[in-house]
Design brief:
Number of domains: 2
CATH superfamily of the largest domain: Haem NO binding associated domain
Structural class: alpha+beta
Domain Haem NO binding associated: 107-184
CATH topology of the largest domain: Beta-Lactamase
Number of strands: 9
GO cellular component, one term: guanylate cyclase complex, soluble
GO molecular function, one term: heme binding
Largest sheet: 4 strands, antiparallel
Number of helices: 6
CATH architecture of the largest domain: 2-Layer Sandwich
Strand content: 25-35%
Strand order of the largest sheet: 1-2-4-3
Distance between the termini: 34 Å
Helix content: 10-25%
Order of helices and strands: EEHEEHHEEHHEHEE
Pfam families: HNOB, HNOBA
Radius of gyration: 20 Å
Organism: Eumeta variegata (Bagworm moth)
């Protein structure tokens, strides 16, 4: 069974929106209770959690979504968490780059890739422009005899699949919005590579 994922989709002064994805149904009410209790017990925070959107969820069922075809179905539940989030929102930094941050010196790409050997550098078309040493090592391991730079300039989905966060669109705007989220990707031959997408 694949583990579920949760993604912060939005936050504001009055709370946040979280998206839950899983292959199991019937967990939406349990998660409301779990989030409410964790907020109270660990953070001394009173929240109101409720479902604002749901797909493929069956109340009380835990066996999985009903399938009418062979296509895999994923349960998606969007929660609204209402709580006083003003203090956090007021303290957020770097939401908009300060003018001094825009004038930082460029970092040499080879230095960047040495620091982050599991990194892929993508262009706006989601094509691979550069890769760290460990990405190349993985490619060589699973493609003996092939040129290790063969995957350069390929679309990322031609070489990797996104295992987590589930069901996100692999597009520039989506990845840029989620630039602080750890993505778990698989090489097409199921070699797992974890990477933090660079803030481009």
């Amino acid at each position: 069974m694949k583990s579920p994922s949760m993604q912060l989709a939005h936050m504001d002064d009055e709370g946040a929106v979280i998206i839950y994805r899983s292959n199991r149904t019937g967990m939406s009410k349990y998660l409301i209770g779990q989030m409410t209790e964790v907020a109270h017990e660990f953070y001394n925070l009173n929240i109101k959690a409720y479902v604002i959107e749901s797909q493929n969820d069956i109340a009380g069922g835990t066996s999985g979504p009903i399938r009418l075809s062979n296509m895999p179905l994923t349960v998606m539940v969007k929660y609204r968490l209402d709580f006083d989030n003003r203090e956090y929102m007021a303290k957020r930094v770097n939401v908009i780059a300060h003018p001094t941050q825009l004038k930082l010196a460029a970092v040499n790409m080879s230095v960047f890739l040495d620091l982050f050997p599991f990194t892929l550098v993508l262009d706006r078309d989601m094509c691979i422009k550069h890769a760290g040493e460990k990405i190349y090592e993985t490619w060589i391991l699973h493609n003996p005899g092939k040129n290790p730079k063969e995957f350069l300039h390929s679309h990322i989905l031609d070489v990797f699949e996104c295992r987590r966060s589930k069901d996100i669109k692999i597009e520039w705007d989506t990845i840029n919005q989620m630039r602080t989220v750890l993505l778990n990707s698989s090489y097409c031959e199921q070699v797992v590579i974890e990477q933090l997408m660079p803030q481009l």
